[in-house]
Amino acid sequence: MSDTSTNTASRIDRLWSYHQADPSNISLLRDIAREGFATNAPEHALKALDMLQASGQSDANDEAAAIHLLTKLRKVDDACERARAARQAWPEDEAVRLEGGRALCNARLYEEALEWFNSAPFGEPALAQMAGELALQSLWRLERLEEAAELGASLAAQWPENPRILAVYSALLYDLERSEEAFAAARQAYAISPAHAYDALHVLASEQILKGDLPGAMSLLDQAQVVRTDDGRVWLLRGSAKMAQGDMDGAVPDLQKALEIYPDHPGSHLTLAWLHISQNRLDEAEASVRNAITASPAFAESHGTLAVVLAMKGQKDEAQQSIRRANLLDKSGFAGRYAQTLLDGTAPQQVTELFKEVMKRTGVK
User: Fold this and answer.
1) What is the 3-class SS of 263-308, one letter each residue?
2) Contacting residues for 136 by C-beta, under 8 A, at least 6 apart
3) pLDDT single digits (tens) 253-303
4) Contact at 8 Å (CB) between 276 and 282?
5) Contact call for residues 63 and 53 (beta carbons, < 8 A)
6) Are 27 and 55 in contact (CB under 8 A)?
7) What pLDDT, on the 0 to 100 scale, is given for residue 8?
8) Which of 19, 32, 309, 356 has CA 20 to 30 A from 166's CA?
9) 13-34 burial string, b = 16+ CB within 10 Å, else e?
10) pLDDT higher for 91 or 360?
11) Per-residue pLDDT tens for 195-227?
12) Number of C-beta neighbours around residue 343 at 10 A
């Protein structure tokens, strides 16, 4: 054990020994909690805060700290239960509303979290920024994208140096197909602090893929996977980048990983379909694109891609029907227009270059 670890353990043990000798000393419990926070010893901090609560002496700050620790320790249900009790006792306390809302977000109870964030303004700027970011994340997860974009624009204008807010805002804009604005916000977030711009990384990687800078895209995706490896967007983009490099075999595991994480995401099925198209594996391509349609029947690019597959199979009438469905959903859709050129015998490009156009519309929310 290092000297630092030994000293930390010694300090906490010493404080506990003082408390054992003077168990009614509430200040000692708060000292232990502070020491646990300062030295990354959350179990000690939470034990002290639990004892404060049991004694009936905890205040709103104590309970907010306990909710934060429970969330950090992934005891999310306990964090939510404690947060609701704390809010009953201190309904207007900003720290309780922030940490309780954070716990609810971790429990994916986004509607309830939004009520906590929006019930009253946050007067403390640091808390207001954190609450704003979490509210933005909640609206994004609920797919209330237009509402989220309005909030994101307001937050970014109010706090233009906050990389977390800018990063989430960039991802929202990208999902809304406002690509140039998304790229600008992502670049701004990354320039301020790469370490705090996680949600901008897949946006920046998408930009680099579209520019043809595949090493640059892979570098950004590698950075993202240092932080977490359970993000389907990143796996999808890794597969897309490898496809753009011509590494079709290497792309398959990445796309399959994206589908494992997001089985109902049409864009991942669709990208895999284009990989099969590029290798003339038309039965596999058709199966993948039909999975995409099952996941999202109203996504025009899926119907257009099915038309491409059917046209390549020589099933002209069926291809024409799929083109009509794609055009009804989105007349500007790329895949449907490309399928028509196949039927007309005027297709101008190699299939291996085409999936980039579809990729612009297949981001993972």
Assistant:
1) CCCHHHHHHHHHHHHHCCCHHHHHHHHHHHHHHCCCCHHHHHHHHH
2) 148, 151, 152, 155, 165, 168, 169, 172
3) 999 999 999 898 888 999 999 999 988 999 999 999 999 999 989 989 999
4) yes
5) yes
6) no
7) 53
8) 356
9) eebbeebeeeeeeeebbbbbbe
10) 91
11) 999 999 999 999 998 888 999 999 999 999 999
12) 16
Backbone angles phi, psi at 29, to 5 degrees: -65, -40
**Residue 67, H or E segment:** helix 60-72
Q: Which two tokens stand for residue 28?
A: 């000692």
Chain segment 23-74, per-residue pLDDT in tens:
889 999 999 999 999 999 999 999 999 999 999 999 999 999 999 999 999 9
From CA 83, how far away is CA 188, in angstroms rounded? 35
- Residue 59 has what DSSP assignment? -
| Lowest mean pLDDT, pick from 96-100, 102-106, 232-236 | 232-236
CA separation for the pair 231, 226 (Å, rounded): 11
How would you label 187-224 residue by residue, b for 16+ Cβ within 10 Å and e otherwise? Answer: bbbbebeeebbbbbbbbbbbbbbbeeebebbbebbebb
Please report, for residues 67, 121, 137, 139, 224, the alpha-carbon distance to residue 152 in angstroms, rounded to integers and kept in the order given.
26, 16, 10, 10, 22
